[in-house]
Amino acid sequence: MTESKLASLTLKGFFAFGLLLVSSLAAPAQQAAPSLPLLFDARERLARPDLSSLVRLRFLTSVDFPPFNFTDQNGKLSGFNVDLAREICSELEISDKCQIQAIPFADLKDALAASQGDAVIAGLAVTPELRRQFVFSRPYLMLPARFVRKLLVPVEGKTAAALAGRPVGVVKGTVHEAMLAAFFPALRAQTFDTKDALLAALKDGKVDAAFADALQLSFWVSSPASDKCCALFDGPYLSEHFLGEGMTIMLRQKDSVLTSAIDHALAALSRNGRLQEIYLRYFPYGLY
Known about the structure:
Layout (H helix, E strand, L loop, with lengths): L10 H14 L32 E5 L2 E2 L3 E3 L5 E2 L1 H12 L6 E5 L5 H6 L5 E2 L7 H6 E3 L8 E6 L16 E5 L3 H9 L4 E5 L2 H9 L5 E5 H8 L8 E8 L2 H4 L6 E3 L3 H17 L1 H9 L6
Parallel strand pairs: 1-5, 1-6, 9-10, 9-11
Antiparallel strand pairs: 2-3, 3-4, 6-13, 7-13, 8-11, 8-12
């Protein structure tokens, strides 16, 4: 079975991401920062295992999943996941023992199984098959679904109920099509073969709104490609059944101590705000 990423950006979308990151630095100071939902209970205290005997911690990632992991214009390994791996090592006070290596996405599972690395942080979707072979950290980021609507079309209300009876586009054969039908049966779904066709139809006014991955929609509405036609609307919508367990770190089953240590670090970074800082670095306009 071929493993898959949770979400991805096209190359064109990646260039838009770079422009957004630069423009965010000039955003008005009074603009509210998008908030990252906490996935750890603030009252929860996860034990910090003893890692004194750890020789090294080798994170494996890929370079084809921007803005999570990619090679920047200087050839440096960068991205949300890369920065998070470094913060995990810092929190665990093992930065001098940490390594981050990029390999082809298709090789990640076999490399971990062969002990060529200790943890995979690359947006690998959790599946029952993988759970039989590996263990996973607690999720550190959920990728929701969102609506985006055409601004020139008047909408009475601020929730999805306001779209009842209106044409709402979705890519056919996707989890978002199934989720739209299950969550919003009153909406009039109109399917498209590809994401590009869907967004073109929205921009041209052939549909009043669209329902898709919030990551891709967030970058698109803020990029020149949208021509300021549209805006995110309502949501976010989360569903483990349709969208999976979220972003996690995959480890070998025998490495229960290391898994607990990473969970401890993720909880600490969530509480002290460092996870939010990394999130804002790569998602200045927010997903939620």
